[in-house]
Amino acid sequence: MQVFPVTLPSGVRYWTVLDESMAMVPAADEYLRHLRFGRDAAELTTRTYASGICLYLRWCQRTGRAWQSAAGFIGLFMTWLQHAPTTATQAEWDPRGSEVRVGPGVEPARGARRVNVVLSAVRGFLLHAASYGEVPQEVLAQLYEVADARDLPIEARGIDARFRLRARHRMREAKPDIDRATNEEIVALFQACRSARDRLIIGLMARVGLRRGQLTGLRREDIHFLPDSTTLGCRVPGSHLHVVRRDNVNGAWSKSRPSRCLPADFLVVQAHDQYVLERAACPQAEDSDFVLVNLFRQPLGAPMPPDAINRLVTDLSRRAGLDRHLHPHMLRHAFGSNLGDAGAALDEIQELMGHASPTSSEPYLHPDAQRLRAAIDRVPSPRLLGEG
Ligand SMILES: [Zn+2]
To answer: pLDDT (tens digit, 9 = 90+) per residue, 9-23?
Structure first.
């Protein structure tokens, strides 16, 4: 079994499945054509689906099952997918003649995401074959569980569908790992800085959590680095800055999202104090509202473009002799992770990181054993024992 691209006389391409004798597998070809031309799927989608169907047919062949009725064994197919080598060559080279290697220490050949993509392709294939009678209807019950659509909001129920289908087989996909800069890397960047401005930039990303665009969009009026800002017309206590969404082209204020207020710590305030002096030495910067301006390259005094932040972090990574080139976003991730490590609650992380949904903040919560213990210890003990 293998996947193969087919080019039609019109030049349109889709992918199909060929068997050992290089003949098209009719049911698979019928479905892949339907995807490409009936459902207007992209060529790339047909390739992904063809390779998923190809894996299923290969597994059916090796285990002596008819593809039309093997759906009841999808659980076994999932195990096979995780552990069978990803290329035919690997299987041929296995001296034990078995292509599945399962056991402790054996890395899965395919991750959960890949397995789920294959399963979607197989479900689509069998569902389509059932629609023209090649696959018995009861196979669908092995693939899908029927849920009552009355649990759904009215808009989602459809016109007269009282039931909806939910795939039975699905692997839990791991949460994406957060690619953060380590605290050692951040200190090394600070030390590699040659100006107060650059130290402020690193501080605003790694200790306030600003995104690159927010950083370069900061105006002087947004900085309230004072113990008390009431004279500036702001009642927020302590040193803080405002993140305001503006349309930078015409200077209009965007009302689509309320501005946020972020506290700044001593290190950031200190870096800013030093930067104010550095910036004042550049006369071209005097009239600019932007906080971060060109001080060392032309046009002097012009707002720093967002790309300049990437270049700075790359240069600093190299100058600091780091093993890898950091990306501005990794400093923001470090901020979020440090908040989580310091025991910040989900709503605090969400607010400080400016996430619209708490789901985005969840990856930063990874309590270690010590924090779990401390959480238990904070709960007052009921006075049940030793009384009476
Ligand atoms: Zn303020």
So the answer is: 888 899 999 998 999
